[in-house]
Predict the structure.
Amino acid sequence: MWKPPQRIRHETNPGSWPSAATAKKSALFSPLDSGNMHIQTRSWIPAMVPWRAALNGDVTDDVINWYARFAEGKPGAIVIEATGIRDIPSGPLLRISHDRYIDGLKQIVESVKKASNGETKLYIQLIDFLSLRRRPTKEKYFLQHLRITSAHSKAVNIDLLDENGIRDALLALDDEDLKIILTPREYESYQRGHRERVTDTNFPHIQELPQTLPALFAEAARRAKQAGFDGIELHYAHAYTMASFMSKLNTRTDGYGGSLEKRARLPLDVYHAVRSTVGGKFVVGCRMLSDECIDGGSNTEDATYFAIQFASAGMDFISLSRGGKFEDAARPANKQAIYPYTGRSGYECMPHFISDEQGPFGRNIKPTATIRSALHSAGYKTPIVIAGGIHSFEQAETLLQNDQADIIGMARQSLADPDWFLKVRTGNGAAVRTCKYTNYCEGLDQKHKVVTCQLWDRLDMDLPGTLRTPDGKRRLTAPPWGANHESN
Ligand SMILES: Cc1cc2nc3c(=O)[nH]c(=O)nc-3n(C[C@H](O)[C@H](O)[C@H](O)COP(=O)(O)O)c2cc1C
Ligand code: SF4
């Protein structure tokens, strides 16, 4: 992962913890009632893909146990991982792309409700992503993938009819020459694996995205409602299709790219299609970026415009993340897929403890507060969820007291200790297992391996009922609070 050149090591310091009486009076543990949103505390576990779904996208027992474990900590809300809306093979990632998935998803809902005693609201994140190929070997790229053109023929001085001859000649060249001969896009596909973009409008399936996506999201939202979820989160963040439409790099000329207004058009079309399918009383919000954190990308001003549009259209919440883009991601190893959390924008999304002067805690606060304040000035009180390096009660409470956010999201801190919310609420904050922001979990995500936390995945392995990874080396969920180990 990319890290700021300053390489300053920051230690997590949760500060002081409240007594149960103080927690009870706090903003964090107070309810939020706004539009369709009624959550018992202003705490939120943002979406995290744990790589536990079946290869066909089905819910497994491991998925159910994973979310039930988070629910035991009784946060105000949990957002289920990015779940695919298209009925296409996409590896062990959850899918909601057909009615056959509804029964499995229902089981997550039931287990979360049971484990949280009905206290935790459950939302599901709906995602669309474009196709991404692994980085090919040089042989594979030049002998199979590359579409030979007259430019290639001319560059190697071999007749276009002798395609194999051209391929062999290109294969023999070094990268310096290839960089000159290939188009920038071809060179990128060779170096990083082919990645579709929303601007590839020469392909009909990309050209037609504005026509196909609203119905796909709406159908997925209908299934989520049928499965018993309390609401949905449209994934408009990071490196995926909807965020790419919102990006300043979206230069489509069909009315869905270019100006801010045109870049907001598809996200609004999707929202309206979803809303008219699920009705006015179901929670529908989105996750979007406060800043893309890439050269030429959308910034906080753009994000403010989008947030106001979404609030005025009637979204129930806006969850703000930042960065996490393909554009500045590191070149993957051979046969590996590019991962959008390996460049500077990835760092901004999931900051590591080795950082710059600002450190990894609260890098999303300033833009979030700016967007929220602009929303309020425009007359909208749509709840804003913040995330990024938040782990302490003091941080969370200050953000709420200072009117910088409405709901506190903690992704990695919840993974490090799913009982954070219950411990802090009951005056047991000292027992919290504090996230160290090492990104061991993110490294597992990058390798598409079952995600666990290094602070607990080898603890209390012999406790009865401990579920393990297939190799038997790691536990799959955090040990129960009160198991016989030190918390920190
Ligand atoms: C293992 C892992 C998987 C993630 N998966 C998702 C995801 O499915 N959707 C999403 O919007 N963000 C995802 N994220 C990003 C988190 O939701 C969150 O925005 C990020 O980790 C920063 O918050 P934190 O500092 O509280 O962890 C993931 C993060 C991790 C560590
Ligand atoms: S592995 Fe655990 S401690 Fe490290 S960043 Fe992830 S949640 Fe935090």
